[in-house]
Write a structure and sequence with these properties.
Layout lengths: L2 E5 L2 E5 L4 H10 L4 E2 L4 E4 L3 H12 L7 E8 L3 E4 L3 E3 L2 E6 L6 E3 L4 E4 L2 E5 L4 E5 L4 E7 L9 E5 L9 H22 L2
Helix pairs in contact: 1-2
């Protein structure tokens, strides 16, 4: 998920790692700094930040997120980088022998992720049919050439409003009773 926090003339940007976003951020905004957890830029660059987030992640400030299940339509391999869906990294290796791991906010349902290639030209790989669950901006929840995308229904909890109001009334009476006793 992407979050922006603006205060004291600075914007803190938290986003999934995307090498193209990082490269464009550094090229577009002088003084962009990595804190170890998030990017920091001047508030004056807000529109540039919003444009880059939209370009690389499909993010806008009013973006709603959906939980999706994606399935690799074919064997996927990426030279010395992570494999992404909608700009969000799914799996990443760091070398030929490192193996691969799912990225933050991604859950592997089934299938295999691996590292392969040579020491100098290693790849991150995802086997055909591998499935993952993650949250994506609603406008990015579409199938692509590489991925089938299924929007998962959020479980809605039925809430009995009248029962909650009655419970609240009882609790307020009980609290008043306790405060009366403690006040003596």
């Amino acid at each position: 998920m992407i979050t922006l926090k603006e205060e004291n003339g600075k914007i803190e940007i938290i986003s999934p790692y995307n090498a193209n976003f990082v490269s464009d951020l550094k090229k577009s905004i002088s003084g962009a700094k990595w804190s170890g957890s998030f990017w920091i830029v001047s508030s004056e660059a807000k529109q540039v930040v919003l444009d880059l987030l939209k370009e690389h992640y499909g993010y806008t400030p009013d973006t709603q997120y959906l939980t999706v299940k994606i399935k690799a339509k074919k064997y996927l391999s990426q030279l010395q980088s992570s494999i992404s869906f909608a700009g969000i990294p799914i799996a990443r290796a760091t070398g030929r022998d490192s193996g691969a791991r799912v990225c933050d906010g991604v859950f592997k349902i089934s299938g295999e992720i691996t590292s392969s290639g040579s020491v100098k030209n290693w790849h991150t790989s995802i086997e055909e049919g591998s499935e993952f669950q993650l949250k994506v901006p609603e406008n990015a929840a579409v199938s692509t050439e590489d991925w089938d995308c299924e929007i998962l229904k959020e479980q809605k909890i039925d809430i009995d409003i009248e029962a909650l109001k009655m419970e609240k009334e009882k609790l307020l009476k009980r609290l008043a009773f306790i405060e009366n006793i403690l006040g003596r």
